[in-house]
Design goal:
With 144 residues, the protein is α+β, with helices and mostly antiparallel strands. It has six helices and four strands, in the order βββααβαααα. The protein has one domain (8-139).
């Protein structure tokens, strides 16, 4: 019997169970951009150490199994990710042609918002020292 892969959160933390690196953060502080790996890599101590002297979330984008209702970004009914919905609604498109992505087939944002999420995803970073108002609103679980 074939099992369906878990849906992955593309905005995970490195310490989440099942975390993997799927992109590297680049760009500038006011215009961050991620570059996607050909294959996601499991999180290891050696991989996390490569980010030194900064925190791993400043260098890498992580995915992990979606926590669904246990996540502050999931809606009250437990059916959808508000972070994905707000990113699509508030953040500007940064790519018309979709970048190659190692997690797309299993990504929560892709499954929920489709191509609209992928066109905005490269600007999403976990640690952003100068986020736009739109990105602050998208990241705030209290903002609807």
């Amino acid at each position: 019997m074939k099992t369906e892969p878990e849906t992955l959160c593309p905005s995970a933390q490195p310490n989440w169970e099942g975390a993997q690196v799927f992109a590297v953060v680049g760009g500038t502080p006011d215009r961050p951009e991620t570059a996607y790996l050909d294959q996601a890599q499991p999180v290891t101590d050696e991989l996390l150490a490569m980010a030194a002297p900064v925190a791993p979330a400043e260098v890498f984008r992580f995915s992990a199994p979606c926590a669904k209702g246990a996540c502050a970004h999931f809606d009250e009914g437990g059916q959808s990710c508000r972070l994905a919905e707000k990113t699509v609604r508030l953040a500007p498109v940064v790519f018309e042609k979709l970048p190659k992505c190692a997690i797309r087939n299993d990504c929560r944002w892709w499954k929920q918002e489709g191509v609209s999420a992928c066109r905005r995803c490269p600007q999403v970073v976990t640690v952003n020292y100068d986020p736009s108002l739109e990105m602050r609103q998208a990241a705030d679980p209290k903002v609807k």
